[in-house]
Write a structure and sequence with these properties.
This protein is an all-alpha fold and 159 residues long. The chain is built from 9 helices and no strands. Helix 4 (65-78) crosses helix 5 (80-93) and helix 6 (96-109) runs parallel beside helix 8 (134-151). The radius of gyration is 17 Å and the shape is globular.
Amino acid sequence: MDADLATFLCLLRAHQRAMRHLTGECNKGYTGFMAKTEVPPVFLAEERELEEILRELRAQLDANPEKGVEILTRCLSQAYAVLFPALQKLASEATEEEGLALVRAVSAAADPADPFRAQFLLGILSPFLFAPSPGLRRASRRVLRTRFLAVYPEETVEF
């Protein structure tokens, strides 16, 4: 899949999910106590969408790692809050190659103009700080020490 197409699909799904949530469609037909206890069917659809995005990201990383990193970076830059659960799951299940790609994407997505992004990026980076792979540990700690301390000093120290 082409990088631009994958990025477009990723952002389109993220936008659709955000719009459903903002317009209140996710709670239609659920009132009172049941709205607080049951998961509406649209949330399950969103989880399926996130799983599909995760599969597409993994396929792109396998096919062309450099374009995969570019797609991850764009997703982290433009839809980090919506895609956070899928990217956190990718981080927890990542192979060493996927983990290194995700660490590079997190590093590239750090932007001092958007301080709200820091907590999301640190949450995605955190599983790699104590990964079994020494290369992945070094890479994630280097990003934390060099990139995050420069871009998000307060958030990084608090982390």
